[in-house]
Write a structure and sequence with these properties.
By secondary structure, the chain is of the alpha/beta class. The protein is built from ten helices and ten strands.
């Protein structure tokens, strides 16, 4: 099912790599990069862009263009993203290879395996994921988020409207019943684990902690970029979502409408 398109560097020395990643993975990327001299640049983008896929796409394209213009030694650009609400679709390079893991979102990069992620979600479909990066970059479901939003709504709309808005805002939590913390052990996570457990207790959810695996994230920055775990695109190709377990595939830009790139 997987083509050989991602195997081009399997038997070659590690190319010079620039990493573009969400701030959620900042600590993990920084930790594993320390022993990787061929990683010549890391570009961080703010968390939350995936909530508006068009903004994520625009941000990624600007970052790619910046890297290609200012980091001439880079041979490849590794994306610290999954499909992320299809926000990576349409991003294209001019001279570098573009590499990404076959993943729906960054949780796969923390767990280390898309099949492990799929199996966990199949077994626990009501899972909301927490991590050190997620807890740092945004306020996840829990008492802190509730208090913060209630204060904002009261200041802007008054007490009565604030209560109504809070009920509406909290309604989507009903689709979840489990808070699962995952980490790669790159720093002390005891406070984040405790915080996640407190959120779960307040929400009436189950709590779980999963030990992640760093191999996928490390291989994203170093190779080998085997076709089963990674997609490697040539300049002039872009990412497209698939309806199978590949998750993403490469398509030629000329075969798609590039309204965003061309104005």
């Amino acid at each position: 099912m997987f083509s050989a398109e991602s195997d081009m560097f399997l038997n070659a020395a590690s190319p010079k790599v620039a990493v573009i990643t969400c701030d959620v993975l900042r600590d993990e990327i920084a930790h594993f990069r320390r022993d990787l001299p061929h990683v010549v640049h890391v570009e961080l983008l703010e968390q939350g862009l995936h909530n508006e896929p068009a903004k994520l796409r625009e941000g990624l394209q600007r970052a790619v263009d910046k890297v290609e213009a200012t980091v001439p030694q880079a041979d490849a650009i590794a994306l610290g993203y999954g499909l992320c609400s299809r926000g990576v679709e349409g991003v294209v390079t001019g001279r570098c290879k573009l590499v990404m893991a076959r993943a729906h979102d960054c949780i796969t990069l923390l767990l280390g395996d898309k099949d492990r992620y799929a199996e966990y979600v199949k077994k626990h479909p009501g899972t909301y994921w927490y991590s050190t990066g997620w807890n740092r970059c945004h306020t996840p479901p829990g008492p802190e988020r509730h208090a913060k939003l209630l204060k904002q709504y009261r200041e802007k709309f008054g007490d009565e409207d604030a209560e109504f808005l809070m009920e509406s805002e909290q309604s989507w939590f009903q689709t979840y019943d489990r808070a699962t913390f995952v980490d790669l052990g790159v720093n002390d996570t005891s406070k984040d684990v405790s915080y996640t457990g407190q959120c779960a207790q307040w929400l009436g959810w189950k709590f779980d902690a999963q030990e992640g695996c760093p191999q996928l994230l490390k291989d994203l920055m170093t190779g080998p970029w085997d076709a089963k775990r990674f997609l490697v695109l040539n300049p002039g190709q872009e990412v497209k979502m698939t309806a199978d377990d590949r998750i993403v595939e490469a398509v030629d830009v000329k075969l798609t409408v590039k309204a965003g790139r061309n104005g």
